[in-house]
Amino acid sequence: MDVWVPYLMLCGGLAVVLGALTWLALYVRRRGGGGGVLAAYEEAFRVTGHAAHQEIRAEAERKTPADSPDGPFRRTR
Asked: What predicted TM-score, i.e. pTM, was given to this entire model?
């Protein structure tokens, strides 16, 4: 019986850690956060990461689609 106690403690600790990480993932998804960490990594290690992140943020903040410079599309005959 004494042989199984360390294994049971290890399995229990692993279950607690996995449960906590699952809860954290659900919490971050619900709040909509977590993108800032990845954006910081992109900006630090990739040259185009900053420009791409700024473009994605601008696109997400845009309320209505941008108009075409040529005006609305009309079919010609």
From this structure: 0.45
How far apart CA 32 and CA 41 sit, in angstroms, is 18
Confidence of residue 76 (pLDDT cuts 50, 70, 90): confident
The span from the CA of 18 to the CA of 16, in Å, is: 6
- For the stretch 30-39, pLDDT in tens is 887 666 666 6
* Collapsed DSSP state (helix, strand, coil) of residue 46: coil
b (16+ CB within 10 A) / e for 5-24: eeeeeeeeeeeeeeeeeeee
Alpha helices in the chain (DSSP H): 4-31, 35-45, 49-61
Q: Among 20, 65, 12, which Cα is nearest to 4's?
A: 12
Domains in the chain: boundaries: 4-61
